[in-house]
Amino acid sequence: MGLGRRLYRGEIDVDFVGKWRLWYSLSGLLLAVSLAGLLINGLNLGVEFKGGTIFSFKSSQASVEQVRESVLDQGVHQVIVQQAGTGGWRATTESLPEDTRAQVQSEISKDFGVPLDQVSIQAIGPSWGGEVSEKAWIGLGVFMLAIILYLSMAFEPKMALAAIVALIHDLVITAGIYAWSGFEVTPATLLGFLTILGYSLYDAVVVFDMIKEVTAKLGHTSKQTYSMAANNALNHTLIRSLNTSLVAILPVAAILFIGTTVLGAGTLKDLSLSLFVGMIVGTYSSLCVATPLLVTLKEREPKYQAIAKRLASTGGGAKGAKNSKKAAAAKG
Amino acid sequence: MLLALFLALGGTMFLQQAYTPKLGLDLAGGTTVTLSPVTQNNAAPPEEILDRAVNIIRDRVNGTGISDAEVAKSGDNIIISIPGVGQNEAIKLVATTAELRFRQVLAMEATQAPADLATNAPTPSASPSGGKSDEPSASDPAKPKASEPVRPPASPSAGAPQPSTSPTGKALSSALVAPTPSTSAEPSATQSPKGQDKRGTKDGKSTPAPSDEPSQPPAEDPNATGINTEGIDPGVLAQFKKLNCADPANRGQGVQDDPNKQYAGCESDGSFKYVLDVAKVVGTDIDTASAGVRQGTTEWVVQLDFKSKGAGEWSKLTTAAYNSQEPRNKVAVVLDGVVITAPNIIGPIPGGRAEITGGFDQASATTLADQLKYGALPLKFNRSSVDTVSSTLGQDQLQGGLIAGLIGLALVVVYCLLYYRGLGIVAVLSLVVATVITYTSVVVLGHNAGFRLSLPHIIGLVVSIGITADSFIVYFERIRDEMKEGRRSLRSAVEVAWVRARRTILIADAVMFIAAIVLYFLAVGGVAGFAFAMGLTTLIDIVVVFLFTKPFIALLARVKFFAKGHPLSGLDAERMSEVGSTGRTTTPQEA
């Protein structure tokens, strides 16, 4: 049977929990690489964070050189010219006073035969980026607190902790990818980062819900340790997790495709790129980080230690999650 | 219930004949200005002050006659949305503080003019003739905010302005006398005094050869020594000495003047610096302001009517100035910390009217009048971002967003059908229902609650397709679980699975909703719109799953095609690997 078919029939049984060492070291490595990237390369902050002016217009007859000259003629010191989609142009300069902005606008209009009101201007003050990122940090903090509270109530504090750690894991790795790749970070990217939070948790919540249901039945007589039960639950929701992630990533991929090919640089691309990267990382972490972490935390509880001990001594599925299949089969 | 919702939304759309959503400026084209308050230590300004600022800005925007503009608060920021482009004047108008103060001049000094300043503002206005300010500025001045005198509003003749002759009591002084002459220390030659210069130029009667000017030593105005320091606060005097008006930073936005203290400030073009007394008359003393052309001239002026208290103060202030020695016979009109004009007062001005001249053109006079009329902003603001989107760029983005949405939707539909077969149809129909509800909600909100669809909204909606679809997936997988156990009929499996799936869906949606709320209230700019879309679709998701998907599946469970597990239904036995077949039989429920 092919993998797809086995997946479809729910016959897949991957030992996510038992391989925790592998996942932890993989994630540890990824985190280290990401942090190194952040420290060495830093993030490539967009003009929105540094302050500056962006002129956008459409013209089929312009070239990068022409646009550059046309803008620099107006007493502008720095300009980055980008092509944005088909016939679209984007010239990014330092912060310009209002008069200069108007001059550049009319010069572009004249040089490339674009009506004046078809030259878009985006002017960002130098303090704006600081404000955006400050708000983002506050938002992040409040969000995490709210989630910890909510998950502690809906589930339990250890699940909340595991979910939050997985979430920070996702954010750091996504940021690391941005640092190494040099993708530009704009407010739209931040927006994407913040949304990843929701997704990353959404997936973890569904998995945890199943784990909670399964492990609630664990008692003195049960034949499964917490790890085994959790792994079972994880496998059980695996199809759903993969389906969900795929279904979530498909529209994002569509936006990324359109944003990159048709429109070029801009909000659409920035946002969907960070979502795309974040969702992939998020899917990995909800399977391979959140649950193993939860298990590590829970197995320390006396109740589950007792079960593990008992099973170990009787040999009934002693070797942890790996034997879950056997144990289950024995029962079934 | 769902039907009721449909009818309500659809009915509203029909009644209002509104079938398309209102578009935000990033899609329709227009200018969006974000104003951030400038406060000490970056402390958040009190809510009520921000609200007041919003109201004043709204009045000002409406006063300009721009239709459909919007002013809204977003966190500590104020966001102004103006449709169409090329409204630079309007943007300037709405964002400046417009704190007007009338202060008696205590001392003044010409700036060491840098070369360029000297060249364009140089006129030997020294001659008292320049003083014929009444002169209608035959040649329309560019738009120099020179310190032109405050003039009697109804001064009889353009030619010879005798304060005494001004017919009505409301006339105010006109500063015909060039500031210079009387002070001994100030050789008339040095008069670079801007005000007169400008006037001179305008009048065309002066002999402005710019080139002469630099040669004159107006720069080092000797009167530094001649300042009468009596009554001047030493601290302010020190500031005055240090003040460099050639630096635009000292006369731009962000200059603060405390009305209850003496103040050292610059003329708007940097030509003079002043020590000014405490403000005796302030903007709030103004009853109304209007822009007009001074009678018998082509010169634009701003006319002020004071409230009764203000009129009394104004009368006192002008009387005091009238009785003082040069340069204390001038009253400076200070706008946002910058002196826009400082005319001589030639007589007390009772009657509560005044007229400000200052080389205005129609636009600048109207702007100032509007600012004064609607009141000063209680806060200073930075224009932290100005975003002008042309209509074509907006269309491109709208198109891109919609195409992306359609592609995304199509991919999800194809996937659902391939994977879930018959059940996939339920998913697709549910998505269609969700899309219709979302669309009608957006339209209805747009026409009734001022909701404008912008790019972040569209992205939020597209991204949310995944969330909505996920609810179905959770439910379907649960049904399949129940079926796999093999001990249930489809009909009971649908019910049992629902109880379990419902809880998961609610918890997961709650997490999304918390995310949306936190983002909405704490984020800036487009983030709020995105969060709004996310929150909206999360709610719609719950509505659809509860009111459509679940009942619909329950209905299908009675249909033979599904109940018997037809291979295309997605519920067939073979696909379920039901009990008895090889492989794993454990389900978590059995653990």
TrEMBL record, chain A:
<dbReference type="InterPro" id="IPR022646">
    <property type="entry name" value="SecD/SecF_CS"/>
</dbReference>
<dbReference type="GO" id="GO:0065002">
    <property type="term" value="P:intracellular protein transmembrane transport"/>
</dbReference>
<keyword id="KW-0811">Translocation</keyword>
<feature type="transmembrane region" description="Helical">
    <location>
        <begin position="136"/>
        <end position="153"/>
    </location>
</feature>
<keyword id="KW-0653">Protein transport</keyword>
<dbReference type="GO" id="GO:0005886">
    <property type="term" value="C:plasma membrane"/>
</dbReference>
<dbReference type="InterPro" id="IPR048634">
    <property type="entry name" value="SecD_SecF_C"/>
</dbReference>
<protein>
    <recommendedName>
        <fullName>Protein-export membrane protein SecF</fullName>
    </recommendedName>
</protein>
<feature type="transmembrane region" description="Helical">
    <location>
        <begin position="21"/>
        <end position="40"/>
    </location>
</feature>
<dbReference type="Pfam" id="PF07549">
    <property type="entry name" value="Sec_GG"/>
</dbReference>
<keyword id="KW-1003">Cell membrane</keyword>
<dbReference type="InterPro" id="IPR005665">
    <property type="entry name" value="SecF_bac"/>
</dbReference>
<feature type="transmembrane region" description="Helical">
    <location>
        <begin position="187"/>
        <end position="208"/>
    </location>
</feature>
<dbReference type="InterPro" id="IPR022645">
    <property type="entry name" value="SecD/SecF_bac"/>
</dbReference>
<feature type="transmembrane region" description="Helical">
    <location>
        <begin position="160"/>
        <end position="181"/>
    </location>
</feature>
<feature type="transmembrane region" description="Helical">
    <location>
        <begin position="246"/>
        <end position="265"/>
    </location>
</feature>
<comment type="subunit">
    <text>Forms a complex with SecD. Part of the essential Sec protein translocation apparatus which comprises SecA, SecYEG and auxiliary proteins SecDF. Other proteins may also be involved.</text>
</comment>
<keyword id="KW-0813">Transport</keyword>
<comment type="function">
    <text>Part of the Sec protein translocase complex. Interacts with the SecYEG preprotein conducting channel. SecDF uses the proton motive force (PMF) to complete protein translocation after the ATP-dependent function of SecA.</text>
</comment>
<dbReference type="GO" id="GO:0043952">
    <property type="term" value="P:protein transport by the Sec complex"/>
</dbReference>
<dbReference type="InterPro" id="IPR022813">
    <property type="entry name" value="SecD/SecF_arch_bac"/>
</dbReference>
<keyword id="KW-1133">Transmembrane helix</keyword>
From TrEMBL, chain B:
<feature type="domain" description="Protein export membrane protein SecD/SecF C-terminal">
    <location>
        <begin position="380"/>
        <end position="556"/>
    </location>
</feature>
<comment type="similarity">
    <text>Belongs to the SecD/SecF family. SecD subfamily.</text>
</comment>
<dbReference type="InterPro" id="IPR048631">
    <property type="entry name" value="SecD_1st"/>
</dbReference>
<feature type="transmembrane region" description="Helical">
    <location>
        <begin position="539"/>
        <end position="557"/>
    </location>
</feature>
<feature type="region of interest" description="Disordered">
    <location>
        <begin position="113"/>
        <end position="232"/>
    </location>
</feature>
<dbReference type="InterPro" id="IPR005791">
    <property type="entry name" value="SecD"/>
</dbReference>
<dbReference type="InterPro" id="IPR054384">
    <property type="entry name" value="SecDF_P1_head"/>
</dbReference>
<keyword id="KW-0653">Protein transport</keyword>
<feature type="compositionally biased region" description="Low complexity">
    <location>
        <begin position="156"/>
        <end position="167"/>
    </location>
</feature>
<keyword id="KW-0812">Transmembrane</keyword>
<dbReference type="GO" id="GO:0065002">
    <property type="term" value="P:intracellular protein transmembrane transport"/>
</dbReference>
<keyword id="KW-1003">Cell membrane</keyword>
<dbReference type="InterPro" id="IPR048634">
    <property type="entry name" value="SecD_SecF_C"/>
</dbReference>
<feature type="transmembrane region" description="Helical">
    <location>
        <begin position="398"/>
        <end position="418"/>
    </location>
</feature>
<dbReference type="InterPro" id="IPR055344">
    <property type="entry name" value="SecD_SecF_C_bact"/>
</dbReference>
<feature type="transmembrane region" description="Helical">
    <location>
        <begin position="458"/>
        <end position="476"/>
    </location>
</feature>
<comment type="function">
    <text>Part of the Sec protein translocase complex. Interacts with the SecYEG preprotein conducting channel. SecDF uses the proton motive force (PMF) to complete protein translocation after the ATP-dependent function of SecA.</text>
</comment>
<keyword id="KW-0813">Transport</keyword>
<dbReference type="Pfam" id="PF21760">
    <property type="entry name" value="SecD_1st"/>
</dbReference>
<keyword id="KW-0811">Translocation</keyword>
<feature type="compositionally biased region" description="Polar residues">
    <location>
        <begin position="180"/>
        <end position="194"/>
    </location>
</feature>
<keyword id="KW-0732">Signal</keyword>
